[in-house]
Amino acid sequence: MVDSESGIREIGPAAHRAGVQRLLSSYRAIPPDANVRLAKKTSNLFRARARSTAPGLDVSGLDAVISVDPVARTADVQGMCTYEHLVDATLPYGLAPLVVPQLKTITLGGAVTGLGIESTSFRSGLPHESVLEIDILTGSGDIVTATPDNEHADLFRSFPNSYGTLGYSTRIRIELEPVEKYVALRHLRFTDLARLQETMDRIAAERSWDGIAVDYLDGVVFTTHEAYLTLGVQTDEPGPVSDYTDMDIYYRSLQHESINHPKTDRLTIGDYLWRWDTDWFWCSRAFGTQNPKIRRFWPKRHLRSSFYWKLIGLDQKYDIGDRLEARKGLPPRERVVQDIEVPIENCGHFLRWFLDEIPIEPLWLCPLKLREPAHPSLDAHRQSHEAAPRPWPLYPLEPGRTYVNIGFWSSVPIRPGEPVGAANRLIEKKVAELGGHKSLYSESFYDEDEFALLYGGEHYPQIKKRYDPDSRLLDLYSKAVQRK
After folding, report:
1. Which of 111, 229, 401, 464 has an alpha carbon within 20 to 30 A of 239's alpha carbon?
2. What angle do CA 365, 370, 371 make, to 5 degrees?
3. Global pTM?
4. pLDDT tens digits, residue range 206-230?
């Protein structure tokens, strides 16, 4: 249904079935010798995608919320539904997904099959950990319902980080959590990265600071001597709120001089969830939109990540950035757009190394831990099968261990004589040395053996053979790694 006042879309089961039939028809139209792919014009990936002249899967009828159950605190959501639409449907009920990735156009299916993270991840894990069941179109052309404890439990566990190489989600049932109207923020300043790491570790473990519960936790590193942790607390207490959707820029609002007196702020829950989208964290500066003279005339509707993606697409198509660099007599640049995870005890080490070796700042910090406890059905499944130490085999994290996601998104000059992806290769080596992983949405340069050790080992070929026996879908290494 569509609520004429709010614009909320809950399309209902009948419309969902029609979208699934359209998807299946498009699958059957793809030649047997062609790889199956999505007919999708937009993406949140920063790596090259395989080109194909064959028709793709029609997912145009799979981009909405099917229904919200405010009593059970669940939502049935189509795989191509964006988090922007999902949050629009749940917030009127006082509910939100347990983890809401930072950018409005990230889809629920994308976050589950490609991973996602946000400031609730220190207490709620990653988006796939609040999934109750999922309908998946597999490479064999069948739609199966996977749950933690049914005959497709192996697919349920293997779907996260498979990036569409095991199939595509058509419907996902997720848990929701109650949220209040506002989020009160404290920005703690640090001049020492060791102290930052220690404080982040303590908050992630205790879920409080100075006797106050912490609902949201992330941070920003500007230099080795200027970094911040932002602590968010839900509240219904009325009062003034800040607005970072116009002239003011959120990440700049974190900065202040006092170590002993944190800067405070307040946002509506909706503005908090999308606080990073307006300026794509800080990446909007590449387009000049942080210059007040430009920002004043920049249409407000284009202050959002989806529009910056269009500009990035133009740059990639016409090599605009490298052409401008060449006119200045400067070398072309290598994109260094990555999210990596290291155990929290290695966070300070990685940050100091990175700031010395890679000329990119700021850096985003987001602590995470596998969710404890997960939803009851998953707990029962783990108990009945004596819970393996790696419950999500394609992105193995140790239960009970805290990690830190570190995000950096920019470019560096290419030095003559260096191999393709030199900076990214250096980062991959350091992350592996520190016992970490990196997300696969951007360029990767691993060899096949190292990649297999990090992302599924012997498990992946087995699950691939069961659900994509004819290799209609690309395998994970072919899809994720840039091979030269």
Report:
1. 229
2. 110
3. 0.92
4. 999 999 999 999 999 999 999 999 9
